[in-house]
Design brief:
Elements lengths: L7 H13 L4 H10 L15 H26 L3 E12 H7 L5 E6 L6 E6 L1 H11 L15 H14 L2 H5 L9 E6 L13 E11 L2 E10 H4 L8 H7 L6 H12 L5 E4 L7 H5 L17 E5 L2 E11 L2 E9 L9
Antiparallel strand pairs: 1-5, 2-3, 2-4, 3-6, 5-6, 7-8, 8-9, 9-10
GO molecular function: cytoskeletal motor activity
Organism: Viridibacillus arenosi FSL R5-213
Subcellular location: Bacterial flagellum basal body; Cell membrane
Length: 332
């Protein structure tokens, strides 16, 4: 039943029908083939395109790498955080999917309206707390009885970790995340309407020997002003760096001040190694260049001009006669 999400009661009823013989696998296949109309669930309205979901995935893959680096430095232990999935679901479904007692950080992201949730599995959170307090990273989940000290330590850690989202979102929007509250019971969150579409980014997290999930919930109302920025076209345009006239002038001036070797060749000759070893002062080597022919002037290793030799203020010099065709091309 591709594309449909069955509830637990529907799954139980289907398994019961198969086990009692009321329905066979062939019946299910025929029923699936007969269905031509796809049911649309307005509670699960898809408000983001696949292209936009891919952009959000890329953004938070970068965020996961930044989080890995940040937590590794803070906790001084092995940390691995990767994106597990990116889905758009109703807010009510997200609340039902997380534990009844967990750590939920509510962040404001001005200048965008609304809040973003960061839910951390208690096993992960207490493992981090234990490492910060000098322990081995053991997890002792008791999230319903957080002390003021534990709350303060965790709040500071996750608030600083969420600053990495600013860098991950830099190409999309200039945000300034700020922690507004810490909640342990998701049922008390009345942030948006239960049917409001949210994007949930789930991260697989390993802290030392403890593993768990970290979820970020972003309501559609928060992303709505910057939805056009999530397109591939915007990413391609934003990656193009425009050079200002001042930068162009500085670059041109730097190039003009660069030194290049300029060589005027009088000619070439080939001799044997034996003749080379027998050379003495006063010996003459005949070149392949006639006196009446112009010389070749090379800039670097590239022939650029034909010249004639002479003197200028008691120093040897050459006078440019003409440019060589093809002199701008570099031989491969």
């Amino acid at each position: 039943m591709a594309g449909d999400v069955l509830s637990q009661s529907e799954i139980d009823a289907l398994l019961s029908a198969l086990s009692t013989g009321e329905m066979t696998a062939d019946d299910i296949k025929k029923d699936e083939e007969a269905r031509k109309v796809k049911v649309y669930d307005f509670k699960r309205a898809l408000r983001f395109s696949k292209d936009q979901i891919r952009s959000l995935t890329r953004i938070h893959e970068n965020f996961a790498r930044l989080l890995t680096t940040f937590f590794s430095a803070q906790l001084r232990t092995y940390v691995q955080i990767t994106v597990a999935s990116v889905d758009q679901i109703p807010f009510e479904e997200f609340i039902r999917s997380i534990p009844n007692m967990t750590l939920i950080n509510v962040f404001e992201v001005p200048p965008l309206d609304g809040n973003i949730l960061m839910e951390i599995n208690p096993n992960i959170a207490y493992s981090m707390l234990d490492r910060l307090m000098g322990g081995t990273g053991a997890s002792h989940s008791n999230v319903d009885n957080l002390t003021e000290i534990e709350t303060k330590i965790m709040t500071n850690l996750f608030e600083r970790s969420f600053d990495n989202l600013r860098e991950a979102w830099a190409n999309i929007a200039d945000i300034d995340p700020a922690l507004s509250e810490l909640e342990v019971n998701p049922q008390f969150l009345q942030m948006i309407s239960p049917n409001e579409t949210v994007v949930v980014i789930s991260f697989n997290s390993i802290i030392g020997e403890t593993s768990g999930m970290i979820n970020i919930c972003i309501p559609h109302v928060v992303l709505e002003p910057i939805v056009p920025n999530l397109s591939v076209r915007y990413w391609m345009q934003s990656n193009k760096k425009e050079v200002s006239p001042e930068q162009t002038a500085i670059l041109e001036n730097s190039v003009k001040q660069s030194n290049l070797p300029v060589i005027a060749e009088l000619g070439n000759a080939e001799i044997t190694i034996e003749d080379f070893l027998l050379l003495l002062q006063g010996d003459v080597i005949q070149l392949d260049q006639k006196i009446s022919q112009p010389l070749t002037l090379k800039v670097g290793d590239i022939p650029k001009f034909t010249v004639q030799p002479g003197k200028l203020k008691k120093r040897m010099a050459v006078q440019v006669l003409e440019s060589l065709k093809g002199g701008d091309e570099v031989d491969e």
